[in-house]
Amino acid sequence: MMSTQAITLRAAGRTMPTGLVAKVATVAAALALWQLLSATRVLDPDTIPAPTSIAVAAARLAGEVPFWHAFGLTLTGWSLGLLLSAAIAIPAGLLLGSSDICYRSCRFTIDFLRTIPPVAMVPLALLLYGATTQMKLVLIVLGSVWPLLLQTMYGVRQIDPMSRETARSYRLDRLRRTLFIVLPGASPFVATGVRISATMALLLTIGAELIGSAEGLGNGIGLAQSASDVPRLFALIAFSALLGVAVNAFFVTVERRALAWHVAHRPSPGR
């Protein structure tokens, strides 16, 4: 007689591949439909090339050293911008979220500044730094610092008041309260903010390269557009999209493993 636990494990093992197969089948069906529309010329191949043409261009790109150099520059700008944003947003969010006076006095300023589109700052950044990595970093930080700052502030303010009172009753100093009460309580919000900021930082990196002509994948997209090389253009866009998916999947995995102790990431009893 097979135990209930064994049946559950086998069912879980069958369910996981099924979800993966469904995702792959959906993508394959979409690509097949796209190829069919291109073959029947419902879609103009000079404007929207067929997936096979994009695949050939992507394979050609993967064999070029300049492409990987541009890919590395994009990753470098993204990672440095995200690190700078985190270094600014997390400490500031902890400070502003812990003080009612600071929170109320700075909230309007934060709401005002975060509504300024980073793209609108491109002319100023180009004037100050030119088409350099510094220009990219300025635009990345201006756009990606706000989600992480707000999430950190909200996380601190959502901490259970009973935990704060317990820490005060035990006369814990500010450093210990921060390490053992504030940071663990706000960590799910901070992790969500990092994930959102990481995606936004990548978008701003490629956008800064495209608009500001700094070296990277975005600049390659602009050059392909200028040369009317549509398959190469779509191949670069596809690589950028895959990079975005990989970045999001990486941070989701890190968040689940780092916060496995938190109730939000524990499996429900019914699963």
UniProtKB/TrEMBL annotation:
Record InterPro entries: MetI-like (IPR000515), MetI-like_sf (IPR035906)
GO biological process, one term: transmembrane transport
Keywords: Cell membrane, Membrane, Transmembrane, Transmembrane helix, Transport
GO cellular component annotations of the record: plasma membrane
Chief location of this protein within or outside the cell: membrane
UniProt keyword 4Fe-4S present: no
Annotated TM spans: 20-37, 75-96, 108-131, 137-156, 177-198, 233-254
Cross-referenced Pfam families: BPD_transp_1
Family: Belongs to the binding-protein-dependent transport system permease family.
Protein name as annotated: ABC-type nitrate/sulfonate/bicarbonate transport system permease component
Organism listed in the record: Thermocatellispora tengchongensis
